[in-house]
Structure formats: C-alpha cells, structure tokens
Amino acid sequence: MKKLIITAAISGAEVTKEMNPAVPYTIEEIVKEAKSAHDAGAAVIHLHVRWDDGTPTQDKGRFKEAMEAIKAVCPEVIILPSTGGAVGMSAEERLQPIDLKPEIATLDCGTCNFGGDDIFVNTEKMNIQFAKKMKEMGVKPELEVFEKGMIDNALKLYKKGLLDGPLHFNIVLGVNGAMSATPRDLVYMVESLPKDSTWCATGIGKNEFDLAAVAMVMGGNVRVGFEDNLYLEKGILAKNNGELVEKVVQLANILKRDIATPADARRILGL
Fold this sequence. Notes:
Blueprint: E1 6-9, H1 27-40, E2 44-47, E3 49-50, E4 56-57, H2 60-73, E5 78-81, H3 91-94, E6 104-108, E7 112-113, E8 119-120, H4 124-137, E9 140-145, H5 148-159, E10 168-173, H6 183-191, E11 198-203, H7 208-218, E12 221-224, E13 231-233, E14 236-237, H8 241-254, H9 262-269
Parallel strand pairs: 1-2, 1-12, 2-5, 6-9, 9-10, 10-11, 11-12
Antiparallel strand pairs: 3-4, 7-8, 13-14
C-alpha cells in the first residue's frame, strides 16, 4: 500500500474553547496546534482561521498571517485552507484564501443539513464558481463529499473540464444531517470514485478513529483533528491535535501502514 497521508483539521469553524479549552483561536495558538500535529506525523494541516475572540473568518489577510506563521515553524508541511468557512458565509467571502494560491484547498461538492437549523449551502453554480477560481489560480481541489450525490456533482465538474484528474476526495461521514459513518458507507463511497482517485476519510465525533481504521485497511488516507472530534476517547478531551494524530499513528503501526512525509504526500497527491 501507499504511505498513509494524515491530515490534521486543527481548528474548524464551529468548535469553541467552551467545548475544549485547547481549540485554537489566535495565530499563536493555531501555530502551536499545527506544530503539535505535524510533529506527531501529520503531513497536511487543514486550516480554518478565527479572530482572536474565536469568531470564524475567511479574511485573506488572516489566512496569510496564519499560513506564514505555520510555515516559519513547519516549513515542509502542506497547508490546505478551507473554502467552506462557516455556515452562512457568501461564496465570495469563502473563496478569499484562494487568492493566496495555496497548493491545495477544499471544494465542497453539495448542500446538506448540518444539524439543528443549519444548512451548509453549496449550489451547482457555487461549485462551478469555486472550481473555475481554483483552476485559474492553479490550486488543486480537495473535493469534500458528505454523501454519494456529492461525488456525482464532482464528476459533473470533471466532465465539464473544470477539474483536472486524477481527482482527490475527502469523504466526510457522520455529520448530523448527512450520511452515516459505517464501514458499509465508506466502502460504497470509495467504490463510487474514479479508479485513479486518491482519497481521505474523515469520521465526525465518535466515528473518528473507527472510520480511520477502516480507511487504513482499505488503502486510503485519514483526517483527524479538533474540527471533527475533541476527544481522545470517550469522556477524555484531547490536550492538543498532536494527541489525535499520535493515536492514528499507533493504529497505522498496528495495521502496517507507513506514515507519509509532506514530500511523500505531495508526490501521492500530484502537488
């Protein structure tokens, strides 16, 4: 099998310090969490940014500040900014980080419920807008898919020439309002991808490590981090993102998956 690419989603837009005091808001805190994850084995840092009071933002200047600060301490790490932002943000607001020309960034491929009254809106026109912008700026999309229809949406973009192959997907399962996170669901999603695709699995909440183990056995890659799950195990909050990455590395050692360096990850993902 190819080496295992571990992505650490270190902050997200929805989790707060009230949920776990280690959730990073400030640039200093974001850098500390990125370094903890990278030192533990993460080749990729999936980045959301906040203002110092914790308010999520897609401000291009804030992303630039965070990315430069992370690179100062982790020069080889791949930084994968979010264009998902937070629920309720406009497409133009969400797209700001693409102007910084990162190697790779997220492209959410469909609309879904996000629990309660929240709806994460990604219309067909938005998908086209995001894909065009990323192609124009030379940014590889990580195609975020929460259920099978979103894979179909991504393939429509590909057929229109708005995406270049091979495609890379992040299969996000267990969101409250979208597809569940069983091994059956992951197998179904992976079997729906083009054969030359690369892919990562993200299990939300209690599903994080179970789904990671299944993904590793299947030859896929794994995302963990505070954005998706705040607990090392039931009832025990993780002290930092590094602890979550370390647990994945332990699983990988048991399952005989070597860990990818950032250089390995760039080669595997075609960056």
